């Protein structure tokens, strides 16, 4: 399966740090899968203007096509001003309305405080559901205190990332098998 890790901010280091840990866990535990880490800080994306995602050029084309070719997307997002970053929302706007159909999506949130725990529930999950993703219901939430000098210092936070990866892989495999069985029923 193609797995894309999307670090959804153009600034800061905590989300990227968490996504690096996530990538290492996937590569160690699921080496048979292809993993791509897209950090929006490394790309210059244009703002969505309603065009089909295939009509964009440069970095925008790379990011959107990578996501569209993915089976699994693990989205890492910081919380700014009690919301997901505009850079992450722009990525969703660049994709088709049902662009996440048949894709499994997991969520990893980094925030300055526990006050932002429900942002994923109230903002990110509705977007993913609207775009037809199969969403891992539990997500990983990490706070400022879980990090020190671009390292995760809370062992429980690392365990939660491992659990998110495992839950995401199980859900993706389950949906893949269910789709296979359904397609076999058509008989052609």
UniProtKB/TrEMBL annotation:
A molecular function GO annotation:
oxidoreductase activity
State the UniProt keywords alphabetically: Flavoprotein, FMN, Oxidoreductase
Q: What is this protein called?
A: FMN reductase
Q: State the organism named in the record.
A: Alkalibacterium pelagium
Coiled coil regions, renumbered to chain: none
Report the SUPFAM superfamilies cross-referenced here.
Answer: Flavoproteins
Looking at the record, the residues that make up the NADPH-dependent FMN reductase-like domain are 1-143
Q: What Pfam families has UniProt attached to this entry?
A: FMN_red
Tell me the lineage of the source organism.
Answer: Bacteria, Bacillati, Bacillota, Bacilli, Lactobacillales
């Amino acid at each position: 399966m193609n797995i894309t890790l999307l670090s959804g901010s153009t600034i800061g280091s905590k989300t990227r740090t968490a996504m690096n840990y996530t990538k290492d866990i996937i590569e160690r535990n699921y080496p048979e899968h292809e993993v791509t880490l897209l950090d929006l800080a490394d790309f210059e994306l244009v703002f969505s203007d309603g065009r089909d995602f295939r009509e964009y050029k440069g970095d925008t084309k790379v990011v959107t096509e990578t996501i569209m070719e993915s089976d699994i997307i693990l989205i890492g997002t910081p919380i700014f001003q009690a919301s997901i970053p505009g850079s992450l929302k722009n990525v969703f706007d660049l994709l088709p309305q049902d662009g996440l159909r048949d894709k499994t999506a997991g969520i990893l949130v980094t925030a300055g405080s526990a006050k932002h725990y429900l942002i994923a529930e109230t903002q990110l999950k509705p977007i993913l559901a609207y775009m037809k993703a199969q969403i891992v219901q539990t997500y990983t939430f990490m706070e400022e205190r879980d990090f020190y000098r671009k390292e995760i210092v809370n062992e429980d936070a690392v365990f939660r990332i491992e659990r998110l990866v495992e839950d995401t892989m199980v859900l993706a495999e389950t949906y893949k098998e269910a789709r296979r069985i359904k397609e076999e029923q058509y008989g052609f």
